[in-house]
Amino acid sequence: MKVASLLATCICSLALGCGSADAQERVKLGVLNDQSGAFASYQGIGSVIAAQMAVEDYGGKAGGKQVEVVSADHQNKTDAGVNIARRWYENEGVDAIFDVPNSAIALAVAGMSAEKNKVFVGSGAGTALLTGEKCTPNTVHWTYDTYAYGRGLGKAVVEQGGKKWFFITADYAFGHDLEKQAAEAVKASGGQVLGAVRHALGTADFASFLLQAQASGADIIGIANAGDDTITSMKQAAEFGLTRDHKLVGLILGMNGIPSLGLQFAQGAQIMNPFYWDLNDGTRSFAKRFSERIPSKAYPNDMQAGVYASVIHYLKAVDKVGSAKDGKAVVAAMKELPTDDPLFGKGFIRRDGRKIHPLYLLQVKSPDQSKSSWDLLKVVGTIKGEDAFRPESEGNCPLSKQ
Predict the structure, then answer these.
(1) How far is residue 234's CA from residue 373's CA, in Å, rounded to a whole number?
(2) Contacts with 153 (C-beta within 8 Å, 6 or more apart), sequence order
(3) Strand 345-349 relative to strand 355-356: parallel, antiparallel, unpaired?
(4) Per-residue pLDDT tens for 7-36?
(5) Could you tell me which of 67, 95, 234, 289 has the fewest CB atoms within 10 Å of its CB?
(6) Which 8-state DSSP code applies to residue 286?
(7) Do the bridges between strand 192-199 and strand 220-224 make them parallel or antiparallel, or are there none, so unpaired?
(8) Selection from 285, 312, 290 nearest residue 301 by Cα
(9) Rounded distance, CA 146 to CA 181, Å?
């Protein structure tokens, strides 16, 4: 019995997250995202691996304690995501939650993080509300947002002659916000918005939406969705022949979706991104290490890179504060410390929680230009972070008025 009891004690002491006493001896990070649905290949296990790599590269400790990474699948269900976050915060000693693609879930987790005085870093979330009216002193929005992508591409396409727009939009907070930002940029640049339709997450058949877009008289079809929905809608548009006389603009067409579309179809398309694996030696080194660890052998996208970089900066802030237990104090330290990492370079975090870094205008290569499986994009322009993201004075974040 004594041997069995001793063995059980040893196993418990080695296991991750074994009991509240053990949790108190760790800095515990939760990666909450879609691991089985439309966004699984865009964040999923890749974001978990990125967080683990960041902890390892930082040395495994912060605030004098070991750092542990846990993860869960929110299944793109708001109630599931909220319940996981509550369990993590109230029962499992999690100090900070990262990633959270799906803006409705991200907004709910941001509110709960403020209520529980924890930290939320939205490295996969898109809605600009996180640094606007829904900002909190416990939230940092790291990688991108709907304002930067919608406004940037909307303006660029109109300037290239794409004046008449119709939107196919995901019917949830992220899609609504992305359409709004792009539409405002189109109108401000002298273009017109002729209409829009909205679809459910995970839609398989876009035929009726594409027919409405075709009949609208628009020359630009703005695809205001994400993940597999973007790929499905753009593939079906090509099959319907819309690409012969319409230009498709995937407002959040990410690198991971391009192989599914194929370079023959996607070539020449322009996207905005704050990260690409082939920017410099630091990004290339990270991409190689990441690819060796992920089962699919994929290269990292911007949101997975955002998890890595934001975890590094979070751990620096925990060291500055000396503990992870006061989330508001940790976020304040994140804002005080300049950001500097091999993936996003130097930057800073504003009072509203918006992380500022450059965005790149990238163009999809043609098949003959691509030299390897992930050699997909080339940089055709750079936008300063201060110009890419919404001015703080326009966001209506209460923190900006203090």
Answers:
(1) 21
(2) 182, 185, 249, 251, 270, 271, 272
(3) antiparallel
(4) 333 333 333 344 444 445 899 999 999 999
(5) 289
(6) H
(7) unpaired
(8) 290
(9) 7
Block mean pLDDT (10 aa), the chain, length 402: 36 39 76 88 93 98 98 95 97 97 94 98 94 97 93 87 95 90 94 97 94 94 90 88 85 85 82 94 98 96 97 98 98 98 96 96 91 94 90 96 79
Q: Name residues whose C-beta falls within 8 Å of residue 41's C-beta, 6 or more positions apart in sequence.
A: 227, 228, 256, 296, 298
R_g over Cα of the chain: 21
Domains and CATH numbers, the chain: 23-144+280-357 (3.40.50.2300), 147-273+359-388 (3.40.50.2300)
Name the H helices within 160-280. Answer: 173-188, 207-215, 227-239, 258-261, 263-266
Task: Tally the residues of the chain.
Answer: 402
Could you tell me if 141 and 125 are in contact, meaning their C-beta atoms sit under 8 angstroms apart?
yes
**103-116 vs 173-188: helix crossing angle, rounded to 10:** 110
**Residue 364 burial (CB count, 10 A):** 21
* Strand pairing report for 220-224 and 345-349: unpaired
* Each residue's pLDDT tens digit, 102-142: 889 999 999 999 999 999 999 999 999 999 999 999 999 99
Distance CA 133, CA 354 (A): 13
Provide the whole-model pTM: 0.86
Check if the beta carbon of residue 270 is closer than 8 Å to that of residue 380: yes
Give 64's DSSP letter. Answer: T
Cα–Cα nearest to 255, from 378, 123, 357? 378
Q: Residue 270 has what pLDDT? A: 79
Integer CA distances (angstroms), 135 to 14, 113, 355, in order: 38, 11, 13
